[in-house]
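Structure in, sequence out. Go:
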């Protein structure tokens, strides 16, 4: 996989993997991301979960406020990406929510 794994990215990923609770994640992400960045990231994850459950673009747009461009981008990542969304969604059982 290591397409562009720089030492900086590796250190960042290790930092995330070191977090041990929701509270630690919240504190780290609040420090590292702007409010808008964190909202965009969480929205994309929610869109991915809904797409995996087979929801329609229009319904996702209405319920999340995500633009059709964002929904299409997430769909492309689900279908042609590295498999990261699917792996996490499966592990957390988000398809069943």
């Amino acid at each position: 996989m290591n397409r562009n794994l720089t030492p900086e990215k590796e250190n960042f990923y290790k930092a995330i993997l070191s977090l041990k609770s929701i509270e630690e994640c919240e504190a780290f992400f609040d420090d590292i991301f702007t409010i808008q960045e964190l909202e965009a990231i969480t929205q994309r994850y929610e869109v991915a979960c809904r797409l995996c459950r087979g929801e329609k673009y229009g319904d996702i747009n209405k319920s999340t406020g995500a633009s059709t461009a964002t929904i299409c981008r997430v769909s492309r990542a689900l279908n042609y990406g590295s498999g990261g969304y699917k792996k996490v969604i499966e592990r957390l059982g988000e398809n069943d929510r």
